[in-house]
């Protein structure tokens, strides 16, 4: 039922240029997708059209050319760098006598290969089921169809309806399980919000170097490779930022042009980490000639998942591929860090990123020195529960000398308990 690839499959690649920018795809990126899926490219067939052909997507002459290439190279799959309708897939398969896979199915298969966690596998399966539900009829073409007339109806339609029912039931079951995962994530976020721990999420175009940067600053050891969609399952790590304290850093899946909507919907629970983050670190491959287009695509997906208004810190990665370029911080009109130039692979500029995080996150942090008499030990206990004490000493009179730092919102809530008493203990 699923168009799953096996390593070493021989493929014919098909790419069509359209004048419409919204329908245009990138051939180089498509070849990287094919390589990431573990498929061998035998040849690339290109063409130009003003609009897709309703029957073959490409013209009839180009379709014949593809069929001849399949015979010449003995290919076992045709990969299109575009999304095809079920009827177009069926027509090309009938003409070429070869399996046809479009761009959406290829991306889904890469995701299926990369998924490691139970949640990730469920999300990919849900997206695959949504996509294949429109193509289900292709799996039963060997069965008889209704021929009309009593006693002459074949089993094909009955089998097809049964399979559709099973597919719907499976999708409902997966959604219920993903809802449980979402509730667990919400509980984790509520706990972090209660502790006033900021969340920073790494976003960016696929293969921009997010996981390499994540490993560099967290020593997490997550899988990182020079391929598209090396990261699929989200990873959360706790880091310490000066003058801020603990910060949760999330590594997320990379974005790509025309990311299938089924995938965006299926990964809603994962992308919530991005939508509810306090700051987004937008990682950019500064050595990529298409970086401006990639930034636009990432912003489009962020807007789609309602994360477009979350504050961003741009990280220009891979400066080691540029000539005579050293790490630096660019600032906006308010003198806040807006861009950090670094190389995650070589580890240069990571200290500047931490400095930028301090400035972006610490502006709401308050620091105080408190002198708490022995009779107010309960106050010291509450401060320890808030995990905000950075240093503790005692003087000769038994007073507890504390250095604290916490978000200003948390401090305002704390002093509301007994504002006059607490302010009395603050030392200048």
Automatic annotation (TrEMBL):
Coiled-coil ranges from the UniProt annotation:
164-191
Q: What residues does the Hflx-type G domain cover?
A: 198-365
Q: Name one GO cellular component term.
A: cytoplasm
Record-linked Gene3D superfamilies: 6.10.250.2860, GTPase HflX, N-terminal domain, P-loop containing nucleotide triphosphate hydrolases
Q: Which UniProt keywords apply?
A: Coiled coil, Cytoplasm, GTP-binding, Magnesium, Metal-binding, Nucleotide-binding
Q: Which GO terms describe its molecular function?
A: GTP binding; GTPase activity; guanosine tetraphosphate binding; metal ion binding; ribosome binding
Q: How does it assemble?
A: Monomer. Associates with the 50S ribosomal subunit.
Which PANTHER family does the entry mention? GTP-BINDING PROTEIN 6-RELATED, GTP-BINDING PROTEIN HFLX
For this chain, the family text in UniProt reads: Belongs to the TRAFAC class OBG-HflX-like GTPase superfamily. HflX GTPase family.
What protein am I looking at?
GTPase HflX
Originating species = Thalassotalea marina
Q: What is the lineage of its organism?
A: Bacteria, Pseudomonadati, Pseudomonadota, Gammaproteobacteria, Alteromonadales
Gene this protein is translated from: hflX
């Amino acid at each position: 039922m699923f168009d799953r690839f096996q390593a070493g499959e021989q493929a014919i690649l098909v790419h069509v240029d359209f004048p419409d920018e919204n329908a245009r795809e990138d051939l180089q990126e498509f070849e990287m997708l094919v390589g990431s899926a573990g498929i061998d490219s035998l040849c690339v067939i290109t063409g130009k059209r003003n609009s897709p052909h309703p029957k073959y997507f490409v013209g009839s002459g180009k379709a014949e050319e593809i069929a001849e290439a399949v015979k010449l190279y003995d290919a076992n799959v045709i990969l299109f760098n575009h999304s095809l309708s079920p009827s177009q897939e069926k027509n090309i398969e009938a003409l070429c006598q070869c399996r046809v896979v479009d761009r959406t199915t290829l991306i889904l298969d890469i995701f299926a290969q990369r998924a490691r966690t139970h949640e990730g596998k469920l999300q990919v399966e849900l997206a695959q089921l949504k996509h294949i539900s429109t193509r289900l009829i292709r799996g039963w073409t060997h069965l008889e169809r209704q021929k009309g007339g009593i006693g002459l109806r074949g089993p094909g339609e009955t089998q097809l309806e049964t399979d559709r029912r099973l597919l719907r039931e499976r999708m409902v079951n997966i959604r219920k399980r993903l809802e449980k995962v979402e509730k667990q994530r919400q509980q984790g976020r509520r706990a972090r919000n209660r502790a006033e721990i900021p969340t920073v999420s790494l976003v960016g175009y696929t293969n921009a170097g997010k996981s390499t940067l994540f490993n560099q600053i967290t020593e997490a050891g997550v899988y990182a490779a020079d391929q598209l969609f090396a990261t699929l399952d989200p990873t959360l790590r706790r880091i310490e930022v000066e003058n801020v304290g603990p910060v949760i850093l999330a590594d997320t899946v990379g974005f790509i042009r025309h990311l299938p909507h089924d995938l965006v919907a299926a990964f809603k629970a994962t992308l919530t980490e991005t939508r509810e983050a306090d700051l987004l670190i937008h990682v950019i491959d500064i050595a990529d000639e298409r970086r401006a287009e990639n930034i636009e695509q990432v912003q489009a997906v962020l807007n789609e998942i309602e994360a477009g208004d979350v504050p961003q810190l741009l990280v220009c990665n891979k400066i080691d591929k540029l000539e005579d370029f050293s790490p630096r911080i660019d600032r906006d009109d308010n003198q806040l860090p807006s861009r950090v130039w670094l190389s995650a692979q070589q580890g240069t500029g990571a200290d500047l990123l931490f400095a930028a995080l301090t400035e972006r996150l610490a502006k709401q942090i308050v620091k105080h020195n408190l002198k708490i008499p022995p009779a107010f030990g309960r106050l010291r206990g509450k401060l320890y529960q808030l995990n905000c004490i950075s240093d503790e000493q005692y003087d000769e009179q038994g007073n507890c000398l504390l250095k604290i730092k916490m978000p200003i919102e948390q401090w305002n809530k704390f002093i509301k308990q007994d504002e006059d008493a607490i302010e009395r203990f603050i030392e200048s």
